[in-house]
């Protein structure tokens, strides 16, 4: 039963990635998963419930990249570079799998559903704030070591970095070229300048 | 006749802004515009043709903001600030009109259709490259005056600024708060640092 639930979420994620959330119907998910509608509605009473589960799974995956990069024994800005490298590797892997740069799993949904679905929007805002807060911790560590200008507001600076990740991903998607993301580490360093000499 | 064409494009833009491109059918457009399908198909043989016209109209509007800000008699980085102020004013006005931050008219479409529609993706890539090139001209002017580090690649630096605009707009949409964009001028300055002393 739990396997069916997880499979429905994974199938939905793939369908949404290859198209958009609006394009994917409950019927599409049932057909792709080989599950009847009764079973799906047992786990997810609505398409929105399924959408919320996709959101959580997407965040779990990005959070996994953040955990792995940020828990490493390395100077703070190197840990940020590790995350940016892992994110870029994820984009390249997704392009291999889907045949086109599908964009950020969280940014895509934020862009698509926020103006229409207050519940999904609110959860996306929480998730993006949590992502930003993770980066802000790195900024604080870097400031404590004297690697980053101590007058920067850590959360605002971190939001700039996350915005750059999101925006450059949109440009990479429009160009269908993951290499657009290669300047991310350089841009992140400019957004987190060293203390004035 | 030309009025009908322009009206169909404007009605479609509003419907897409309030929802998504996938959510809007040719029938929805006809109903909202008070036009029958025959008339619509006279101007637009397919939904994609209508989508391409919406794209052009959205670019025309953003290009208008760029023209107005960048043709001003002012130092280059002040011209960039003028554009960022005009963009933020547009987002606030769109929020008033639609009841929620609808996102960037071009970034939304890039995020939604790029992985599915090669023709729209190619045109979006051109438009975003043209936007970036406009910003790159400002960067070059600023470098010539000694306001920006001359070792920066102007196009790559400009792409960082456009990415920041796009990404912060995604975060503003998720937060449904245009004030998220208020840090744009500060972030743009960090992405375009002064020459080393």
TrEMBL record, chains A, B:
Pfam families: TetR_C_13, TetR_N. The keyword Transcription regulation applies. Transmembrane segments: none annotated. It comes from the Bacteria. Keywords: DNA-binding, Transcription, Transcription regulation. Residues 2-62 form the HTH tetR-type domain. Residues 25-44 bind DNA. InterPro entries: Homeodomain-like_sf, HTH_TetR, Tet_transcr_reg_TetR-rel_C_sf, TetR_C. This is TetR family transcriptional regulator.
């Amino acid at each position: 039963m739990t396997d069916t639930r997880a499979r429905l979420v994974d199938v939905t994620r793939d369908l949404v990635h290859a198209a958009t959330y609006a394009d994917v119907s409950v019927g599409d998910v049932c057909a792709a998963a080989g599950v009847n509608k009764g079973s799906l509605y047992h786990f997810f009473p609505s398409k929105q419930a399924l959408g919320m589960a996709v959101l959580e799974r997407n965040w779990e995956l990005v959070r996994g990249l953040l955990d792995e990069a940020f828990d490493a024994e390395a100077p703070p800005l190197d840990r940020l570079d590790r995350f940016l490298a892992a994110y870029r590797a994820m984009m390249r892997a997704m392009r291999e799998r889907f045949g086109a740069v599908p964009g950020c799993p969280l940014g895509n949904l934020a862009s698509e559903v926020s103006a229409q679905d207050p519940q999904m929007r609110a959860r996306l805002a929480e998730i993006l704030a949590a992502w930003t807060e993770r980066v802000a911790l790195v900024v604080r560590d870097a400031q404590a070591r004297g690697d980053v200008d101590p007058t920067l507001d850590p959360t605002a600076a971190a939001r700039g970095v996350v915005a750059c990740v999101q925006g450059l991903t949109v440009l990479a998607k429009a160009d269908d070229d993951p290499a657009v993301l290669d300047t991310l580490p350089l841009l992140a360093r400019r957004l987190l300048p060293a203390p004035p000499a």
